C-alpha cells in the first residue's frame, strides 16, 4: 500500500495553516473543522481514502464523531440519513457502483429533506470493473433533488465541503449534497492547501438545527407516512421550491465564505478561463481543467483565441447564466466524461443539459459539440484538447461537425 | 355518441374481493354477449385491500369504442348508473383508503340511478341508515346474507350470479337476461345450477323510488386537503397526542383513559359486526382492552372497558378472548346507525341498557360469516344462502 | 471487564407484573388502515406501550408502514420515521449513533432514549438481513430491532418470503394442476440465526401476540439490557393466512402448542424457554398435531394428507433431533428429515 501523508492533525484555532494533502484528505479536514457528528464508511476505491483519514482523526481524538463501518453502501447511506434526521451532522461517500448500490437510500434522502454531505470519488461504473474516473456515478442522482458540485483541486475540495454544509443545512434547503472529486486525479494526488482556522469556521458554519423536523421524543412527529395521489404532488411541490431558491442560497453562502475566509470564488457556478476575447470555448467539469488550461495557454501563444468554462455546480444547473455566458462564442466544445446512452444525438449528460439551457436562454445559436473523452480513467491529454479545439473551430467556421465525437479512442 | 354505462361494486376488502371481482368481470362479459365493449377494474387506491375496509370495483361498458373512451376519461367514474352494495353494513358510510373522510354509500349514484343492496332487511330499515341526498334514486334489495370469504378459499354461494341477475332486471339496457344466462352457462362453474339462482333474483327484484332528501340526516366526517404551502415540510405530520381520563355521565367521577385517536382515518366503517358489552358481568380482566389490535377500548372510570364505536372495526377478538359468557357478543352492524358509547348508555339507565343488551344478543344474526375457520365450512354454509336465493 | 465496548445507560424498564399493571397510555393508537384482527398492528401497539414516550421508532416499508400511516396520517404517539425495506438495521444504527454523538457533545440533554426499528419478514429475513446482522455486532449502541412475522410479503398482496411456511398459498406459490406445492422451502429460523451469529448481542427472543404480557416484557428487557438486541414475533395475519379475524389469538396459541413456533429468550447466551414451549420441552405438554393449526387457515386448504404428514415430520424432527429443539438445528448425527412417503 502506498504511504499516505500523515493526516493533518492540528488545525489551528485562530491561524490559517498550510498542508500538502490530497483532495480526499482535504475533505476529511473539512469534516474535522465542521465537527461532524456521524460518519459512515464502506470501502470502495477511490473515495475511501477520505475514510482512512477520518478514521485516523477519530482515533487520535482530533475529531469527535461516531465512526461506523457499514456492511454495504445501502446501509452506509441509510445510517447517515437517519442520523441526520435525528439532528446529527453527517458525512459519507462512495464511488462507482458502490454509489449505485446505495441508490434507494440516495433516492429517499432528498425527498425527506435531509441534509447530508457526501464525497463521490468519481469512478467508472461496472461492468467491466475499473477504478478510473467517469462522472456517471454522481450524475445518476441528478433528477432526485441532490445538489451536485464538481471540484478540481484540493483547496476547492476543502472550501466546497465547508460551503456544502452551510448550503445543505440551510433551513430553506435541507437537501443532500454530493461533492465530486475525480477518482485518482484528485482523490489521490497531493497539493498545497490552506486550512482555515477553527474560529473562522465556527463563524461561517452554525450548528445544524433541524427545528420542528427533528426526530426526537420532545417533538412527536411521524416522518414520511404513506401517502397517495391526494398528497404526493403537493409534497413534490414543496421540495421543488428548494430548487427554485437554490441558486440564491448558494450565492449568499459563497459571498459569506469570501467575507469570512478571504478566499474569492467569484461566480459560484462556473469558473471562466481566458474567455474574455475567445472565439470558441471549451466546457467541462473536474480535473480535466488542468490539461485544458495548459493547452489553452499553448494555443493562445499560437494566436488561437480559445477559452474554457469549468462547470462547478451541476445541480442546481444555472442554465440561464451559463447560456448567456456562452452564447457570444462562435462554437462550444463540451469535454464529456460521461455517457448517456440513447440520448438525443447520443451526447453525454453535460452537453444534453447545456443544449437545453441554450435553447431557452441563449440569444444566438452557436453549435454545441460534445466530445466523449477521458472515460474509464483515461487521461484527457493536451493532444486530446488540441484536437477538440481544432474540431470546435471547424464548427465555428461553418464546417458541419457530428454533434458527438469520441476523442482519444483506439480504432 | 353511443350508450355508456358505469357500475360500481362496493364490498368489504378481502372478505368480498373475489366476489366483487367476479361480478365486475361478469358484467363486462355479459354485456359483451350483446356486442358491447367494457373494462373492469378495482380502484387502485383501495389496494392493497384490507379485511373489512370498504373497497370499490368498477365495470364500464359502452356500445362503441369512442363512447368507451369517454367512459374512461376519468379513472374512477364520477357518477355511476348502478351501485351494488355487497354488505348492508356498508350502508352507513364508507371510509376507504384513498378518500378523505367518510363518504355516503350512494354518493356516486347518478340522478335516478339505482342502488342495490344485498341484505336480509327491507328497504325501510336500510333507508334509516343510508344518507340522504339532493337527488332521487332507486333502491333495490337483493335478499341475502353478506357473502364473506378470503383470499384463498372462495365461498361459492351464488351471490355473484344473483347480482348479475339483479342487474339485468334493474338495467336491461346494460344487458338482458339472455346475456346473463349465456355468460353463466359458458364461463361459470356449475352454471346450470347457478342460472336458476340468478333467474330467481331476476324475476323477483323490485326497486322503489327514494325521493330527494330521504335518508339518514347525520353529517359525515370530512376534512379539508391542505395546500402545499400549508403542509408541514419534510413529508412530516404531527404525531398523536396523549388522551386522558373519562367522565362518568351520571356521577361525574373522572378516571380511566380514552386515548387520542387518529382523526384522519376513523375505521368504524370497516365494521360489519360490533361488540355489545355487559358492563355488569365484566370482571375487569383487561383482556379485551389489552388484545384489541386497534386500541379501540376506552378504560372507564369503573375499570370496565367500553368498545369505542368510532374506531372499532369489528374483528371479534374481544369476544373470543373474554372469559365471561355473553359479556361481549358480536352482533350484526346492520341494525345500528350510531356510534354512541354503550358504557354511557349503561350508566345513564342500567335496566334499559341490559334489557336492550339481552334482546339484542338473542336476536343477533349469529350466522354472519366472517371468514375461514375450517375446511368445508363454506360448503356447510352455502345451503342456507341457496335457500334464501330460492326465494329470490 | 472489557472497556472496549461502552454503552450509554438504558431506561430502567422493569417487567409489567401482570396485566393489571400495564399502563393505559397508547403510543400507537387507533385509526390505522390494517385488516380486522391484524396481529402485526397489535404487536406495534404492545411494543409502543412497552417502550413508553422516550422512544424513537423507525419502520421499514411493509404493512406496518403502509397500512399504519396510510392516507398521510399516523397512529404513532411517539416519534416515528419511515425507512426502506431493507434498512431496519441501518436506521436503528443511524438513530442510535446520532443520539449518542449529540448527547456527548451536549447538544441534547443526556437521557436514555429507546431506539426501536421494525421490519416485517420480507424486510428482515430477506432484504434487510445483512443490515440487521451488522447492527447486532455494534455492541456500543443501545437499540432494538423487531421483526414482525406475518409469514409473507403482505403489503404487496401476499407473496412468499423466507419465513413463509412450507406449501403456503400465496400469489407467488399458487397451488396448480401440475404443481400443488410451489413453495417447498422450509421456514428460515431467523432468531436462531441472530443468536448464533452475534456473540456480543445481549438479547434475542421469540414472542407471540397471543402472549401479550410476555411480548411487552420482552421488549422492555431488550431495551433495558443494553447493546443491540433482536425480537422475532409471530403475527397471525387474517388476510394472508385466510382466517376469521376473531380466531387470531387462537391461532397464535396453536402455533406454539403444536411446537411450530417455539417461545424462548436468550439473554447473554443463556437460553430460557417459556410458555407452552417450556412445557413441551419438559414433557409436561404433548404437542398438538400440526393439522389442528394448519387446517384452520385457508392458505393450507389445498394440503393433502401427505403434505400434512411432511409438515408434521419436519416439526417432529425439530423437536426430537435438534440439539436445542426449536433453536439450533445441529444434530448429534446426520439424520435425514422424515421422508415424504412411508
Chain-wise SSE layout:
The complex is a heterotrimer of chains A (411), B (392) and C (342).
Chain A: E1 17-22, H1 23-33, E2 38-41, H2 49-59, E3 66-69, H3 73-85, E4 90-94, H4 96-101, H5 103-111, E5 116-122, H6 136-139, E6 147-151, H7 154-168, E7 176-182, E8 190-195, H8 198-204, E9 221-223, H9 232-261, E10 270-273, E11 280-284, H10 289-301, E12 306-311, E13 313-315, H11 319-326, E14 331-336, H12 349-361, E15 368-372, H13 382-396, E16 404-406
Chain B: E1 4-12, H1 17-32, E2 37-42, E3 54-62, H2 65-72, E4 80-85, E5 109-119, H3 123-129, E6 137-143, H4 159-170, H5 177-187, H6 191-204, E7 207-210, E8 236-238, E9 244-247, E10 254-258, E11 273-277, H7 287-291, E12 297-299, E13 305-307, H8 317-321, E14 328-332, H9 342-348, H10 350-363, H11 377-390
Parallel strand pairs in B: 1-4, 4-5, 5-6
Antiparallel strand pairs in B: 1-3, 2-3, 6-7, 9-10, 11-14, 12-13
Chain C: H1 39-51, E1 55-60, H2 63-66, E2 80-83, H3 88-104, E3 114-120, H4 121-127, H5 129-137, E4 143-149, H6 190-197, E5 203-208, H7 212-225, E6 228-234, H8 238-242, H9 248-257, E7 264-267, E8 270-273, H10 275-281, H11 290-294, H12 305-321, E9 322-324, E10 328-331
Parallel strand pairs in C: 1-2, 1-3, 3-4, 4-6, 5-6
Antiparallel strand pairs in C: 5-7, 7-8, 9-10
Give your account of this protein's structure:
The complex is a heterotrimer of chains A (411), B (392) and C (342). Chain A folds into 2 domains: 17-261, 3-Layer(aba) Sandwich (Rossmann fold), CATH 3.40.50; 270-406, Rossmann fold, CATH 3.40.50. Chain A has 13 helices and 16 strands. Chain A has helices at residues 23-33, 49-59, 73-85, 96-101, 103-111, 136-139, 154-168, 198-204, 232-261, 289-301, 319-326, 349-361, 382-396; strands at 17-22, 38-41, 66-69, 90-94, 116-122, 147-151, 176-182, 190-195, 221-223, 270-273, 280-284, 306-311, 313-315, 331-336, 368-372, 404-406. In chain A, the strands form 3 sheets. Chain A has a 7-stranded mixed beta sheet with strand order 3-2-4-5-7-6-13, sandwiched between helices. The relative contact order of chain A is 0.11. By secondary structure, chain B is α/β, with parallel strands linked by helices. Chain B folds into 2 domains: 4-222 and 382-390, Pyruvate-ferredoxin Oxidoreductase, domain 3; 234-262 and 273-363, Alpha-Beta Plaits. Chain B is 29% helix and 20% strand. Chain B is built from 11 helices and 14 strands. Chain B has helices at residues 17-32, 65-72, 123-129, 159-170, 177-187, 191-204, 287-291, 317-321, 342-348, 350-363, 377-390; strands at residues 4-12, 37-42, 54-62, 80-85, 109-119, 137-143, 207-210, 236-238, 244-247, 254-258, 273-277, 297-299, 305-307, 328-332. In chain B, a hairpin with a 6-residue loop joins strand 9 and strand 10 (254-258). The longest helix of chain B has 16 residues, at 17-32. Chain B is globular and about 70 Å long. The mean pLDDT of chain B is 95. Chain C is an alpha/beta fold. Chain C has a single domain (19-295), classed as Rossmann fold, CATH 3.40.50.970. Chain C has helices at residues 39-51, 63-66, 88-104, 121-127, 129-137, 190-197, 212-225, 238-242, 248-257, 275-281, 290-294, 305-321, and strands at residues 55-60, 80-83, 114-120, 143-149, 203-208, 228-234, 264-267, 270-273, 322-324, 328-331. In chain C, strand 5 (203-208), helix 7 and strand 6 (228-234) form a beta-alpha-beta unit. Chain C is globular and about 65 Å long. Chain C starts with 38 loop residues before the first helix and ends in an 11-residue tail after the last strand. In chain C, 61% of the residues are buried. Chains in contact: A-B, A-C, B-C.
